[in-house]
Amino acid sequence: MTIAIQSQAARHPYLDGRPKRLLIDNQWVEAASGQTFATIDPGTGKVLAHVAEGGAEDIDRAVASSRRAFDGPWRKVKPYERQELLLKLAELVDRHWQELAELDVLDMGAPISFVVPRKRRALGLLRYYAGAATMIHGETTDNSMLGGEFVSYTLKEPVGVVGAIIPWNGPVTSAIWKLATALATGCTTVLKPSEESPLSALRLGELIVEAGFPAGVVNIVTGYGHTAGAALTTHGGVNKISFTGSTATGQKIIQASAGNLKRLTMELGGKSPDIVFADADLDAAVPGAGMGVFGNSGQICMAGTRLFVEKKIYEEFVHRVAEYGRSLKVGYGLDPQTQLGPLVSNTQLQRVSGYLESGVAEGATAISGGSRLTEGAYADGFYVPPTVFTNVDENMRIAREEIFGPVVVAIPFEDMDDLVRRANDTMFGLGSGVWTRDVGKAHSLARSIQAGTVWVNCYGPTDPAVPFGGYKMSGYGRESGRESLDAYLNTKAVWIKTA
């Protein structure tokens, strides 16, 4: 990391020294309290910008704005007009992607080499849901009992105001993921970004206004989870919450939603099994399993953090994964050679470091990594190298709890039935992986693993058309695909007596 690379942060066009404000009713306004908070570059520990600290009063203003839009001009916008607006936003995101990507690099630390290619996903989401906007419809139904004197049909109607709460580990794509679905269905949205990485969502808000969305259709309130986030989840004027984040926070949101029985989409934590058989293509499985947990510095909800390896190849494979991790360049995110950036914050660094210490204290062996990087250019940032633990008891904290860092526990297996039991022995069920040349094993495990996604001979690809979500305490509801649309729609039955 060099001074030249660090100085690029100061030259980013969005970081002009002025405090960042809230987007309410297509106007940029200060928080009612007048307070701001600092957002930090995790690669250097330095302040990037000060951002408006929204609270309950600002959430009230934003929800009222979204309600006016939903009951007024947005309700009159035709599906093909919603489609045009989403396509216009896609054009603007395409044009400004490098700028948005660099904001995410600076704000949460992901390498530019990781974020820039996600442009395809961001544009894919916007264009997929632009297409979906004109394909939402009910259906006619033949009555099973009453015969031809009645005609029945259904209408699909937007649920109303959506509170979208996004995580810090993929800010701009997470914002687009939430907004595209809500807007396609005709809902309005109050977006609450994470306080750890709010900048790209705010810049996206500028593009939403430029695209021509009516006032109030998208409002953005920055602030802390326990204030702004809590006010959004309890607000009686919000009809649905779409949340991505930790299971613990998700549980609080479920309780908070009871007041007006809000619809919920909950994409929560994971402790995903990634299973490698001896017959797998190991040359593909080593980097695949490695980046399945080390990618984005392990700050991915579906990361394959429990690596089950068939015993006959265990020693070879695990040491190859450790060597692969050591070969990855850990550094400042704007360096194009960087493959792993810092953790998002000092708080996250302390959390991950605590798990590293816990693993060793409980008897596991870190055959690579194992402690924070502090030498030279790493001193001021929040850097942890890829870490592989062996000699792991499956009751250890590192084997059962979500770490959200570049840390994998490697566990041998022999028996297929026992493997399934152990893979499913977790409160989570978000992702999973299987590496094998045996199609029978692949199909068998795809049916047996209790997870929302099973990747075979790959780990982590997503697509706007393919649903994503979890089992058990990894949440419920689905994002992406046709399944996600129904969560934003009410179904109304209409009966007409013709006799």
Concise summary:
By secondary structure, the protein is of the alpha/beta class. It has helices spanning 3-11, 56-71, 79-95, 97-108, 112-115, 119-133, 171-185, 199-211, 225-234, 247-256, 282-294, 314-327, 346-361, 397-400, 416-423, 439-448, 481-486; strands at 22-24, 27-29, 36-41, 46-52, 140-141, 150-158, 161-165, 188-192, 218-220, 240-244, 263-267, 273-276, 306-310, 365-368, 387-390, 407-413, 433-435, 455-456, 475-476, 489-497.
Radius of gyration: 23 Å
- Please tell me the total number of domains: 2
Low-confidence segments, given as residue ranges, are 1-7
Helix coverage percent: 25-40%
Question: Termini, distance in Å?
Answer: 79 Å
Average of pLDDT: 95
CATH-level-2 architecture of the largest domain: 3-Layer(aba) Sandwich
Largest sheet: 7 strands, mixed
Strand order of the largest sheet: 14-15-16-13-12-17-18
Percent strand: 15-25%
Broad structural category: alpha/beta
CATH class (first level) name of the largest domain: Alpha Beta
Number of helices: 17
CATH topology of the largest domain: Aldehyde Dehydrogenase, Chain A, domain 1
- Extended strand count: 20
Looking at CATH, the homologous superfamily of the largest domain is Aldehyde Dehydrogenase, Chain A, domain 1
General form: globular
